[in-house]
Design brief:
The chain is mainly beta and 312 residues long. It is built from 2 helices and 24 strands.
Length: 312
């Protein structure tokens, strides 16, 4: 009797999916519907669709030189406003490590930090030319987001995936765990916001899987914002206006949203930038760059009111 090879091929295909694709809640007793399999395949394709070796997760602008730094696999630099890019060598990391965030010290732009899955924390003191690992005190090398205290460049905050929030008070030389994440959430992005907390510190804003939350730097509890007008979906990036701390930008699957009341209400300022990653120029807060997951770069020179596409 001849048997069809289709079940065997389906089994092999299912094993491949379980090993390599980001499929949730898979079990042999409850095989995936064909539509979910197709969605997983499309997701995997999208992660490789940018010209930067993978999904774009990070963007930063040097306020002195106007250089752009983009994080994917690995870090890329542009000296002509995003028209051309060159890869930057970084310390050896786990295979196919993703760069998840990049920050530049606004007081000394030669100092930069980057995080990533399989990368831990790396630091540059020469404007991104060379990098060194800074992971003392960390329990994992899967780092998701980093930000600098708006008033103290030695003070950094770091989200470690599946672990919690860490702080460094010596410019990344050592790290201490200081807080859990918001309940049942992973932090995807961080922003340091300098309007008064009433306790003398700053607010730390965090983008999570269903909106934006915040905590004073005493870390005595996370406060979910009203987030009126903001979709209850993953926040891929947050950026604050250094001249007006009530103004922030949030990158979502749908595009760029803006708040001018510290997160109570939001409105869409640029749609169509998928999984938007945003960077505000610290020296000129009207200049905002946003990049999509596939590397399409946009620029606004008037605080998000109008946008021009930089990439072809």
């Amino acid at each position: 009797m001849k048997y069809s090879k289709f079940p065997q091929r389906l089994l092999i295909f299912s094993v491949f999916l379980s090993l390599f694709l980001p499929v949730n809640n898979f079990s042999w007793a409850n095989p995936l519907p064909l539509t979910e399999i197709n969605n997983s395949i499309n997701m995997a394709k999208n992660l490789e669709s940018s010209p930067f070796g993978g999904h774009v997760h990070a963007l930063a602008i040097n306020p002195l030189t106007n250089e752009l730094f983009l994080g994917a696999r690995p870090i890329y630099n542009s000296q002509d406003g995003g028209k051309t890019w060159n890869a930057i060598a970084i310390p050896k990391s786990k295979p196919r490590a993703n760069v998840t965030s990049i920050i530049i010290d606004p007081r000394n732009p030669e100092i930069m930090y980057a995080t990533g899955h399989g990368l831990s924390v790396i630091k540059s003191v020469d404007g991104g030319k060379t990098w060194a690992v800074k992971n003392k005190g960390l329990n994992s090398d899967s780092t998701e987001a980093i930000t600098i205290d708006v008033y103290d460049s030695n003070k950094l905050y770091l989200a470690v995936l599946g672990d919690g929030l860490y702080r460094s008070q010596d410019a990344g030389e050592s790290w201490q765990r200081i807080s859990d994440f918001p309940k049942n959430q992973e932090i995807r992005t961080l922003a340091s916001v300098g309007y008064p907390t009433g306790m003398g510190g700053i607010w730390l804003y965090a983008g999570v899987d269903d909106g934006v939350t915040k905590s004073p730097d005493c870390f005595c509890g996370w406060d979910k914002l009203a987030n009126e007008g903001l979709p209850k979906k993953r926040i891929y990036s947050l950026a604050s206006d250094p001249q007006n701390f009530q103004t922030l930008y949030a990158g979502t699957q749908l595009g760029v949203y803006k708040t001018e009341d510290a997160g109570k209400s939001w409105h869409l300022v640029k749609e169509g930038i998928t999984d938007a990653i945003i960077s505000v120029n610290p020296r000129n807060s009207q200049q905002i760059y946003a990049v999509s997951s596939d590397g399409q770069l946009w620029l606004s020179n008037n605080s998000g009111n109008n946008w021009e596409k930089i990439t072809p």
